[in-house]
Write a structure and sequence with these properties.
Number of domains: 2
Order of helices and strands: EEHEEEE
Structural class: alpha+beta
Distance between the termini: 67 Å
Largest sheet: 4 strands, antiparallel
Length: 98
């Protein structure tokens, strides 16, 4: 079996391991995966809150969907307000125009 020097993704220490090894120990691997999962859970919670708010607005007000000709954005009109959803770097924002 071939071995080479690596740098652990979690603790940044050098270690000797298999060619495909990324972590120096099971503890480092577990810590890395737990942090990754926590970040994903946090992003999903934010996404669910936005989805829920959008559904509430959609049910509460009569909405009309308009697609602009110039830029191709989709706007939703609710009681004199226009808004569109913007997704940027895995975050969603609501842009409101009067």
């Amino acid at each position: 079996m071939k071995y080479s020097n690596h740098v652990c993704l979690t603790c940044k220490k050098e270690f000797l391991g298999r060619l495909n090894q990324k972590y120096c120990s099971i503890a480092c691997k577990t810590l890395y995966n737990n942090e990754k999962a926590a970040k994903l859970r946090h992003e999903l919670i934010d996404h669910k809150i936005l989805q829920k708010n959008f559904l509430i607005l959609k049910e509460f007000y009569a909405t009309r969907k308009i697609i602009t000709k110039k830029y191709g954005y989709t706007y939703y009109l609710i009681n004199g307000y226009a808004f569109r959803l913007l997704t940027e770097r895995n975050n969603q924002y609501v842009i409101i125009k009067k």
